[in-house]
Specification:
The complex is a heterotrimer of chains A (101), B (444) and C (463).
Chain A (H helix, E strand, L loop, with lengths): L6 H10 L6 H18 L23 E2 L11 H5 L5 E2 L2 E5 L6
Antiparallel strand pairs in A: 2-3
Chain B lengths: L5 E11 L38 E2 H13 L3 E2 L2 E2 L2 E4 L9 E4 L6 E8 L2 E12 L3 E7 L2 E7 L6 E7 L6 H17 L12 E10 L11 E6 L2 H20 L7 E6 L4 E7 L9 E2 L6 E2 L2 H10 L4 H12 L6 H4 L3 H16 L4 H9 L11 H12 L6 H13 L2 H8 L6 H11 L6 H13 L2
Parallel strand pairs in B: 13-14
Antiparallel strand pairs in B: 1-11, 1-12, 3-7, 4-17, 5-6, 5-16, 7-8, 8-11, 9-10, 12-13, 14-15
Helix pairs in contact in B: 2-3, 5-7, 7-9, 10-12, 10-13, 12-13
Chain C lengths: L9 H9 L5 H19 L2 E4 L3 H7 L9 E5 L26 H8 L3 E6 L33 H8 L5 E6 L5 H7 L2 E4 L19 E6 L2 H11 L29 E4 L11 H13 L3 E4 L5 H19 L17 H14 L5 H24 L2 E5 L17 H5 L4 H5 L4 E8 L6 E7 L5 H14 L10
Parallel strand pairs in C: 2-3, 2-4, 7-8, 7-9
Antiparallel strand pairs in C: 1-3, 4-6, 5-6, 5-10, 9-11, 10-11
Chain lengths: 101, 444, 463
């Protein structure tokens, strides 16, 4: 069966997903993709022209909250930063972003 | 601009809504005044594992309110979608926004250079803020999430704008309306309103829209907006004249160099992988609910100002300040009504407010304002003899000025007036002084 | 573990407490002893709660009196390490607690510890855990199932009186079946997901894994209810689920599904036997057809992996945890496939199509439930598989859970209850019972009747 994705496509997807993959992983992933895409291809057998998509099964609508400050739910600065590997002076830290924002 | 090319310009403007709490969580919405960084956060706006968003009803209603004020159609069924991209200030790796079913669409704003159509208005959440610093010798970016998930309303126009001036006029008008409806402060310095212009030029023989657009981003003043658009028109004209092909690009504005510069070359458009956010049930309005919001719409600023001009002959320059917000306009309406009945000069009153000679804000009591104004302009009749003495003194001590007057320089009257008024111990009626001075000068 | 306090059920425990026959501290000690004795082999727990005894003391006057429970490690517990069995969250200490844990703890429960799972709940074996697999206590050469393998194993081995798991498609019911315990997946929207590390947001359903149907019903009472932090929870009133226990199933119409599809040879006869039991109890059971679960695999794979790729985008190592290089192979596979099916040019072909096919399944069930009060099938097409079989399989989880995916993607409530034990291997088969949305009462009613009429429940002797 013909490959349904190419290594280039797999590499592009990895970029979109912010995942680093090795050459070897890319090759494996092509195989994994092929397997999965072969399985899910069966949906083309169903006639879905008249069918609406379902995003949510509950049928719920208009579940919103009033515009109130929920102080009890807010973190202190310490709690916010508690799990950060890098923090400085109350901020999260990353290496300099070069984008000119 | 070369008369050959036509400016094709559309604007995308983001405004932070002034709700009490954030868009998808109950954190305080006041990033600019937070006591410290990362102190208005919670699991949701920090994108912690297991956290979930809950939509702010007020923000949704205000979005509809704006849409109605701009003559938009409202999507009775609407939803939120996830817009995916990776950036350190975007905690979930996606922004909750709206893709194909924005709350509002198909509206317009009138400008002196024609109608600008509103393509859509949608609601989304803001990102955190990056601060670039050097810490311990290393170049880093610091992130503050106080602003994360603040409600942002985005207003997108059709490419109807045909001049830089019109772009500015449109933007200012939109800001006025946002402030007037009391849903956003639009403080440009605080990032409360952010301008983006899409600029391209249409060749004279072209009927279809240009196949590129330059996105001017992160412009934070009207002045820079106008400069940037003008600059782009010029730059693109030169390029097109030289036979260059222009491509999709994102550019920023450098206000010191007065130039635009490339930020990102968008050869391939971003793939945001939009899909409906499964965590947020859709929003469905009934016609009645929309009507209820519509009837709550305040009388539009323009309508009120026109009314004041018609009834009170209010000078054009005073209208907008006094109707800056709907609440203020209501007070001013009351003020003018009372003042007019009492025989006060409306324009003098407006001028005094404009020059900040009397205090006037949302807390003002109408009667007190009128009293303050009356006191301000209360004048005392000066004893004629005293007045004449002072006039004579001033004329005698300024012989050169008198000479100028006699030579025909009428405007030096102002100088004399100033000196006399200054010397008078009481607040005199300028008219009285003026007449007396005139008489004295005739006799010189 | 019979005749030990740790082998009591939840109902028995509370009963004996009330009669003052025992003290909770004795139960707790027995459970801790059981863990000490077995867990170095079984490896159900990843983290133990150091503060357990203090919590028990503090809550002894509350309804659950300090009852120790096991919590799946994809559920956030403030101050108690939560990893989702992934190295990305190796040292993660949540600064808040999931609503469902708050609820049970406010009722008096305490947390023994956090249980092992397939990393990020991606799987049906618990073998993809980055902290090592959990073994099936019934037969340690075999897998416990997944992704809630740790929770199911803990309950099966009497290392916990009851446990909380989560199901995205099969992850409560399948490990319950493989471990020979009861697993209840509530209706999607019945139980809050706030604090549950998201896998597929549109199907994730936390629920109880218990020794008996009664225990599961009691736990569901504590877990269920609308949460203002989770807008996908329903304002539907929460009935007292224990009211459905001990009720006759006479006259109920039951549809038997999937017996004739490919691959059911191992379990078919046992499910037929189970169906006969229901008939003897007065229900009207007949085989019926449903939309092929082969399509459900596709719908589930696409929708779930798409939502997974989105929900795992927040793990960038900046605000917490380690960066994305710490993801294991299965997580990477799922993120990649999910990203692909959502990407430009492919989203319509895959994601949109899957959501449309999902509607077909909803409509199919609606038609079936016009005719039947509930539907039954095997929970899994096999006994618990041998350890090691799932390594590097591209789609083990989704293929394995085929029989459960139709009810998961449509949000229906379902329960798995033991219906056969192989005398040689000591391994179990589970009977899956599903009902319309919000009708947990019905699955509980039928499962309870079945459990009482049969002897597959290994805790019945200790009454």
């Amino acid at each position: 069966m013909k490959n349904t994705v190419t290594k280039t496509q797999v590499t592009h997807v990895a970029q979109l997903a912010s995942l680093t993959i090795t050459e070897q992983e890319a090759e494996h992933l092509v195989g994994a993709f092929d397997e999965t895409l072969a399985v899910i291809d069966n949906l083309s057998q169903l006639s879905l022209n008249e069918t609406e998509p379902t995003s949510q099964v509950t049928g719920l609508e208009n579940i919103t909250r009033a515009d109130e400050v929920l102080t009890d739910n807010m973190f202190s600065q310490q709690e916010a930063l508690a799990n950060a590997k890098r923090s400085y002076d109350g901020y999260f830290v990353v290496d300099r972003i070069i984008d000119n924002d | 601009m070369t008369p050959n090319y036509k400016l094709i310009c559309g604007m995308e403007i983001h405004a932070e809504l002034k709700t009490q709490s954030k868009m998808f969580c109950g954190c305080k919405n006041d990033p600019f005044h937070a006591p410290t960084s990362n102190s208005y956060t919670c699991p949701t706006c920090l994108g912690m594992p297991g956290a979930l968003p809950v939509a702010n009803k007020q923000a949704i209603e205000w979005t509809v309110k704006l849409g109605l004020a701009l003559g938009c159609k409202i999507n009775l069924f609407s939803k939120f979608d996830r817009k995916h991209y990776f950036y350190p200030d975007l905690p979930k790796g996606y922004q909750i926004s709206q893709y194909d079913l924005p709350f509002c669409y198909d509206g317009q704003i009138e400008t002196s250079e024609g109608l600008v159509r509103i393509r859509r208005i949608h609601l989304e959440e803001d990102t955190g803020k990056l601060l670039h610093k050097t810490v311990d010798g290393k170049k880093v970016s610091l992130i503050d999430f106080n602003r994360s998930s603040v409600p942002l309303i985005e207003i997108v126009t059709e490419p109807d704008i045909t001049s830089a001036a019109q772009a500015t006029e449109y933007s200012k008008k939109l800001r006025q309306i946002l402030q007037y409806l009391d849903i956003a402060n639009c403080d440009m310095e605080q990032g409360g309103m952010r301008l983006e212009a899409n600029v391209s030029l249409q060749k004279p023989d072209q009927t279809e829209l240009p196949n590129y657009k330059i996105e001017l981003k992160n412009i934070n003043s009207f002045r820079f907006l106008e400069q940037a658009v003008e600059y782009e028109i010029s730059r693109q004209t030169t390029a097109l004249d030289a036979g260059e092909d222009l491509h999709q690009e994102t550019r920023g504005w450098n206000s010191t160099k007065n130039q635009s510069f490339v930020q990102r070359s968008k050869e391939t458009a971003e793939d945001y992988r939009y899909f409906p956010d499964p965590d947020l049930p859709p929003i469905r309005f009934s016609e009645e609910q929309i009507e209820a919001i519509r009837v709550e719409l305040p009388e539009l600023q323009e309508t009120i100002i026109k009314r004041w001009q018609d009834k009170y002959r209010l000078e054009p320059r005073f209208g907008h300040q006094l109707a800056k917000s709907h609440k203020l306009a209501e007070i001013t309406d009351q003020l003018f009504s009372v003042a007019f009945t009492g025989g006060t000069d409306i324009n003098k009153l407006a001028s005094a407010i404009d020059n900040k000679k009397i205090v006037y804000d949302l807390e003002s009591d109408v009667d007190k304002v009128i009293t303050d104004f009356t006191t301000l302009h209360a004048t005392e009749t000066v004893n004629t003899a005293d007045l004449d003495t002072i006039i004579q003194t001033v004329i005698k001590t300024n012989p050169d000025i008198l000479t100028k007057f006699k030579q025909g320089q009428q405007q030096v009257m102002g100088f004399f007036m100033g000196q006399i008024m200054h010397q008078l111990k009481v607040k005199a009626d300028p008219q009285q002084v003026h007449d007396a001075l005139n008489k004295a000068l005739e006799n010189c | 573990m019979t005749n030990q306090l740790c082998s009591l059920t939840l109902a028995q425990t509370l009963n004996k407490l009330q009669k003052k026959e025992i003290q909770m501290s004795e139960i707790v000690q027995s459970v801790l002893d059981s863990i000490k004795k077995q867990d170095s082999t079984i490896h159900a727990f990843l983290t133990q709660n150091e503060g357990l005894l203090g919590d028990v003391k503090a809550r002894e006057k509350l309804p659950l009196a300090g009852l120790p429970i096991a919590v799946k490690d994809n559920i956030c517990t403030k101050g108690l390490r939560t990893t989702a069995s992934s190295l990305v969250l190796d040292k993660f200490l949540p600064q808040y607690t999931a609503t469902i844990v708050e609820k049970v703890c406010q009722a008096g429960a305490t947390i023994i510890g956090k249980t092992n799972l397939d990393a990020w709940a991606h799987g049906s074996s618990t073998e993809t855990s980055q902290y090592g697999r959990t073994l099936n206590p019934r037969n340690t050469g075999h897998l416990p199932g997944g992704s809630s393998g740790g929770s199911a194993a803990a309950v099966a081995a009497d290392m916990s009186i009851v446990a909380i798991g989560t199901e995205t498609a099969g992850s409560i019911r399948q490990p319950a079946a493989w471990c020979g315990v009861v697993g209840l997946k509530p209706t999607y929207g019945r139980v809050s997901r706030y604090g549950v590390i998201a896998m597929a947001s549109s199907t994730d359903s936390p629920g109880p894994i218990a020794k008996t149907v009664q225990d599961a019903a009691m736990m569901l009472n504590y877990l269920a209810g609308q949460d203002l932090h989770d807008p996908t929870t329903s304002p539907q009133a929460v009935p007292d689920f224990t009211q459905s226990l001990g009720k006759s199933i006479k006259g109920l119409k039951v549809g038997l599904l999937y017996q004739d599809i490919e691959g059911m040879e191992i379990v078919k006869s046992h499910i037929d036997t189970a169906a006969k039991v229901l008939t003897e109890l007065g229900a009207k059971v007949e085989p019926t057809q449903a939309l092929s679960p082969q399509y459900a695999i596709s719908v589930y794979t696409i929708v779930q992996r798409g939502e997974v790729s989105s929900n795992l985008a927040r793990y960038d190592g900046i605000r917490f945890g380690n960066d994305r290089t710490f993801f294991g192979d299965e997580a990477k596979r799922r993120i990649m496939l999910g990203t692909y099916t959502l990407s430009k040019g492919y989203a319509d072909k895959y994601y949109l199509t899957a959501q449309k096919a999902r509607t077909l399944f909803i409509q199919d069930y609606q038609k079936l439930f016009e005719k039947y009060d509930c539907l039954i099938s095997a929970t899994s097409p096999s006994f618990a598989k041998k350890i090691g079989v799932t390594e590097n399989a591209a789609m083990f989880g989704e293929l394995e859970d085929m029989l459960l995916e139709p009810s998961s993607i449509t949000g229906l409530p379902g329960i798995s209850v033991p219906c056969y034990k192989d005398p040689q291997t000591n391994l179990f088969i589970g009977l899956n019972i599903i009902a319309p949305m919000w009708r947990e009462d019905r699955v509980i009613q039928i499962a309870d009747a079945f459990e009482k009429a049969t002897d597959w429940n290994t805790w019945k002797e200790t009454k």
